[in-house]
Design a protein that fits this description.
Layout lengths: L3 H12 L5 E10 L4 E13 L5 E14 L9 H22 L4 E8 L10 H11 L5 E3 L3 H11 L1
Parallel strand pairs: 1-4, 4-5
Antiparallel strand pairs: 1-2, 2-3
Helix pairs in contact: 2-3
Length: about 150
């Protein structure tokens, strides 16, 4: 999780840009000995007064945790830990996101042939139940599948 000082900087950064859109995403990578590297990103997309994108700033947090999934091909606990990390990020930023355009991106597939699908229904329900928005899922979840993926490797 970001430090209090980092959260303060992120909040000020968002407040200073009333037209920006915010994306929250998370991804993880299995390492040796049941250790997992988690990356959580906050993307602030600059939008001008005409609604045209003008670049972005990414704030990243990387943590390591021990996670044991019953089956490596069905990473339920790892996927739900990603979701939990995103809800925590949202909760600390809620006061600056509540009246703003934002999206939650999950690196979880809705297609049954993919292992991450094991957590799809639970993850959608947790995001909708705690935050009240429908999450963006893979393959459209660029904040998770591209940005967070880069930092989780």
């Amino acid at each position: 999780m970001h430090t209090k000082e980092e959260i303060k900087v992120i909040k000020e950064f968002i407040k200073a840009r009333p037209e920006c859109k915010v994306y929250l995403g998370a991804d993880s990578q299995r390492l040796k000995r049941k250790k997992v590297k988690f990356a959580t990103v906050i993307i602030i997309h600059y939008i001008d007064e005409n609604g045209i994108g003008k670049g972005a700033k990414i704030f990243t947090d990387v943590t390591y945790e021990k996670i044991e999934d019953a089956k490596l091909s069905r990473p339920f606990m790892r996927m739900m830990t990603e979701v939990n990390k995103l809800t925590e990020v949202y909760q600390v930023l809620e006061d600056v996101l509540i009246d703003r355009d934002f999206e939650i991106h999950l690196d979880i597939s809705e297609q049954k042939e993919h292992g991450s699908n094991v957590a799809c229904g639970y993850a959608k329900g947790m995001i909708y139940g705690t935050i009240g928005v429908e999450p963006v899922m893979k393959p459209n979840a660029f904040a998770a599948s591209c940005a967070a993926d880069r930092y989780s490797k």
